Each structure stands twice: as structure tokens, then as C-alpha cells.
Amino acid sequence: MRAWLVALTLAGCVIPRAYRGGEARTIPDDRWERRLTIPAEAPRTRHVILMVGDGMGMGALTSALVANRGRLSLDRLGVVGLQQTWSADELVTDGAAAATAIACGVKTDNGAIGLTVNGQPVPSLLQWAEQHGWATGLVATSRITHATPAAFVAHHPDHDEEYEIALDFLDMDIDVVIGGGRDRFIGRRDKRDLLFELQERYGVTIVDSVRDVARADLGKPVYALTTDGPWPQASKSDPAQLAEATELALERLSRLDQPFFLVVEGSQIDWGAQWNHTPRIVSEMLAFDRAVGRAVDFATEHPDALVVVTAGHETGGIAIKDGNRITGEVTARFTTHGHTATLVPVLATGAGSERFAGIYDNTELHDRLLAAMTNAVTPNHRGVRPAMGN
User: Fold this and answer.
1) In angstroms, how far is CA 345 from the centroid of its own chain?
2) Contact 381, 111 (CB under 8 A)
3) Please, what is the angle between helix 362-374 and helix 95-104, to 10°?
4) What is the mean pLDDT of each run of 10 residues along the chain (390 residues)?
5) pTM score, two decimals?
6) What is the DSSP string of 159-178?
């Protein structure tokens, strides 16, 4: 049992299982529209937006739906699938192995980032995009070196080696990076200033806030690492911050006049579920849903854009026990403080979204994303993967 859980038990703390309802709605009524039809001749996919709600299973999604009075931006994604999440060595995956499967298309052991089970590095979708002339972006409410964003950049046997993972960012010319984890780049024990090195190597503009991204020179990459640790909880800060970061990243990438691949993670749904804390799950889900709304708005305005929303795994074994869709009250029950092997949703809309219906493995989700990016006729389900650097 984790030390913090023991401490909570000894202290007699009570973790809320219920969300009592609130006034916030994530989308205005005039933007709520179901996109259930797929055009007979969809445009080629030119922009791909992958949004990961870490720990988001059906229970977390349902809690947000009830709390928001029966409507979410997620409702606007008309293609629905399910993905299997297990890792190479365990039925219940950790975040590192799950993210590696989606980012790199291979199963690996729990704990590993961007490696095969034999320790060989595998290129991620973000690296593929960069190597093929696409603009790239990475946004997370966790440290940017945390498991999910790290899997698109780094190759390490231990996802906890975040100071080592930060070094791998020096090998990536990412156009937009927004998140936490500044102290992984500066103030390090080895005295290196990785942000200065990024400036020297790629001309990166360093800004202090999300909103400063809009004012950064468009001709240069921009990093907005706004906190040393993760961002504050959505309920204790600006719940629209992730949505704003997503919108600014999309605006910036779209102005570069080239295809782009953007990864956005709502990282802290997982943490609320680990604490079995329903109000935090709801607040993080609604913050993530706002960001999804910005992405779907972009896809509505750009027919060549694809939005895919999923999770690396489910956390908490969440079941909705009671609630009220009129008042937004939700009562949940939990089976664990950790991850589960439950299937997680895949929701998609836009150019190439028809690929994402069905039930399939997390590595196949990678293949379907790559097929969309290459505008292939069918996913490369069992194809040979390119070596690093090719």
C-alpha cells in the first residue's frame, strides 16, 4: 500500500466519493452538435490532434456527463471505439507502457518509455511527424517529462528518470511545448540549463505563462513551462487553462502552413481517481472536456483535421452509484486506488475518423493514427516499424 494512503488512513481522513453539483457548463448550447455521419469522400488528413485523458475510463466520463447535466464536448465526436490497454508484462498497465504503446506502437514492460521489451528505442508518432516535415506540439497539465508526454519524446527504461528524460527534448525540434516541469530543465543537479541549450540549438523562445505563447515570435519554437511541478488542480486554479493552452497551440501550429501533430494530455484525471476523489475527477474531466471542445471547434472549421480522444488506461475502477442529472450531483464507488485493465474509450471526429471505430489493442491505435497521418488505405496492423533516425 502506498505511503500516502497509509497516512490518510491513520489520520482518519475522508476522501469524498460524491460530487454535489455546480453551476459550470463546459460548452454553450449553440456549439453542442453530434457529428455522427462520415462523408463518403472525406478530405485527406493534414492535421492530427491526439487528446489523452489520463485515467479516463467510462466511469470518469460518465461522472463528468452527469455533473455537466447530460452534455459534454466529448458528445460531439461521432466515432466511438474501445482500446485494450495491457502492457507486455502485466494485464494492468502503468502509464509509461500504455503511453509507449500509443506513441510508438509496441508493447513494453511497465515502467519503460519508448523502448521495446528488449530495450531497443522505437520512434514515436511525434518523431515521425518531425522527420516528415510536420509541425509538432505537446501540451500537458503534468510535468512535460511525465509518462504520457515523455513517451512521445524519450527512450528510457525507467519513467521516473525525469531529469534524464528532459535531456531527450534536446533532440526534438518541437514547435510548441506547454506544461509543467520547469525544474527538470533548469536548477538541475548537473548545473545544465536545458532551456538555454534549447534556445542555442533551435532558437526556442521561453515564456512564463500560457498566454505569453500568443505573443511569441511565430518563426521560432516556444516553450511555456509555467510551474516546476505539475499545474495546480483544475478546481484550485483556472479551469479553462488547458482549453486556452490547446487553443493557443492550435492557432500557432495552424499558422505555420504545414501539416501538424499535436498531443494534449489532461494528466490529473488519473490523480483524482487514485485518491478516489470524485469532485477532483469531475473538475479535471470538465477542464479536459473544455479543451476537447476547442479541438473539435478547430476540426469543424478545418475539414482536413482529425481529433482523437482516448486514455492510456482506466484508474480507480469507477462505478457511478447514484446522482442527479438535473442538479449535477454524482456519487461514485471505487474498486482500487490504482489502475485497472478495463477497456477505455476512443472517440474521434474529422478527416479519417472512421478508422477509429471498433475494439482493438492500444498498439493498433498507434497504427490507425499513423495510417491517418500517411493517408494510407488501411492501418499497418502488423507492419515492420522503422528504425530510429529513419
Assistant:
1) 13
2) no
3) 30
4) 40 65 64 48 87 98 96 95 97 98 98 97 97 97 98 97 97 97 96 97 96 93 96 88 97 95 98 97 97 97 97 98 94 97 98 95 97 72 38
5) 0.90
6) TT-HHHHHHHGGG---SEEE
